[in-house]
Amino acid sequence: MENVNMVPDMDQAYDESFIRIVELLESKKYFQARDELLKHNEVEIAELLVDIRREFDLQRMVVLFRALPKDISVDVFAELSIDDQIDIINIITDPEVKYILDELDFDDMIDVLEELPSNIVDKILEKTPKNERKLINTFLKYKEDTAGSLMTPEYINLRKTDTVKEALGHIKEVGLDSETIYTCYVLDRGRKLIGVVSLKSLVISPDDMLIADIMHEDPVVAHVDDDQEEVMDLFTRYGYLAIPVVDNEFRLVGIVTVDDILEVIEEETTEDIERMGGVIDTTDKEYLDRSVWQHVKARLPWLFLLMCSYFITGGILRNFEHAMSAVIELVIYMPMLMGTGGNSGSQSSTLVIRGMATGELELRDFLKVMWKEIRVGVIVGICLSVLNYFRIVYLDHNPPMVAVTVCVSMILIVMIAKLIGSMLPMMAKKIGIDPALMAGPMMASITDMISLCTYFIMAGLFLHI
Question: Is this prediction's pTM over 0.70?
């Protein structure tokens, strides 16, 4: 039979290459290992170096890194995590460090310098030209996780009096050193941003047309102190490849490009997922790169807090101990009610948190969300209760009033859980807390308490205990 699968399995090729490199390193054939590395692009080389570090140690990784051609080593360095970058810098020589930093994109260089010890940064800046040193110091002063810390000064600026022909000539001169050439920024003499013009507009316009006639005024901008999530929202909303960053006087100080925002999206998504799972992580390391103690520190505080919340649940059970002993059948349905309440609350909180993250929901939608979740909760609760009534009466052979108690409790629990699940994230955002904390384990703990209280109150009303 003819083999129609002509495309090689990239993962298989990567694994085979890694095994080959490991064998060469064990035989101390470093140059052959380097040649094997060079069969891959810079992204795959960076991944292979990280895997080699895990298989052997940092020293082997650095040996291979230093064996790479200089131009390739810079591209590979840019693809490594900041922790791996710092570890490499701490081992290689000062001239090698200077070469790498000189060749890196400006924003990548700033990211590295921010993580280095101050004495090493000072040493690097001593050998840096005065103008560049001043620019670097300016960027290092911007707060972390703001537009200022994300931006790069490597952009193309034009004047509104330039012709299209002059603009294209300028792009050819400086484009190689710019972060992007697809959008150019029009500045006045005070470096204030007055418009933007796309490369597409330049290419299709007559050579003698002025930039002022084709530029777009009132561009979308970010301010240097804007949080990176706000910048991320701008990219999501408008779909731009780059967004200009201005200071308080509307002077252009840099641009943020989409590749940097992709990293922010990954970082923010990871943070939200971890918080929703009850993990408070203060490092940027990947799972395998974190020590056991780092995992413990990330997980233990939240588990401790949640465990304390269950002391309240235990107190509720003790207060209603007489009800459970009077009608033992009530105990059988407690896990179902608590689990359904937790799941209902988590559903609502997840949808609301996602809606707020994408900008679909705002705090002003509080009452609309509340009314919708109440209606959803009632309908879902009734559907589940009908099914449970027949199960409790005809399959479990319990008295009808026990079934009524469970079913009414189910309706109320689902409705309240959905209401709380939707409201807590919005309230958290209102007071400045990350809404993601209001999902997962936290939501389950809260709904467990509410479920038990509701259940035993209904038992008192319908069963008179």
Answer: no
